[in-house]
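Subject: sequence -> structure tokens, single chain

Hey, anyone have a minute? Need the predicted structure for the following. Not urgent.
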Amino acid sequence: MVFREKDGSVRVMTKGDIEAQLQKELSSLNCLKENLQRSSQLTRGMTGILTSFEDRLAKLEKTTLPVYNDTLNLQKRQENIQNTLGALDGIIKHYNISQKVEETIREGRITSLENYLECLASVREAMIYFEENNHNSQELQNLTLLFQSGGETLEREFRLLLNRYCKPILPVVILDMLENGPEEGKMSADQLPARAVHELTGIAEWLVKHKREEYMNVYANFRSTIVQQSLQEIGRASCRERV
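Reply:
Had a minute. Here:
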């Protein structure tokens, strides 16, 4: 057999060369078979591991899924309980409001207008709740009477403030205003301090909001009386000057 070398030369192969070459090829073939067998074994082993891992995952899922569902249900129940407790707190607050503010409202004397109005707002809020949910309850009747009492107290406080601070204007002040104008006069006709104005305004706004507008007539009558008395003082002062 003729065999061409890599350098291009031609060499005639003997029987021994052929057998050696064949033996070499057989050895390579056997090595390849062994490698294939090991690869096949590794593949089967990896397949077995993956199959076992998959089975374990399936078992774990079967075990944890009920726990997850139970946990989710417990969370929902907890949320429902918290919402229910919050609703109950709101309901209990409405039932307790009359006892909480009754002393302040029925005292008949307003020491802090802001606090008094907050108490009345709480009563009104509770009234709305019972009107919508239990309009025949005794609690609604108690709250209604308490709210009416608070409104009467505010009307009385409005009159007291007017009576306390509104007095007839001195003739000298009126004459100064007539002579120099209300802005350039040396004397002021303002009788109400800022605090009194603030409280009168707050009371008036509450009375208007809750349809208790009788205070307007009270204010008009009171102020007209003050104007009349002021004019009478001017008349008397003029008479004294003539004499």
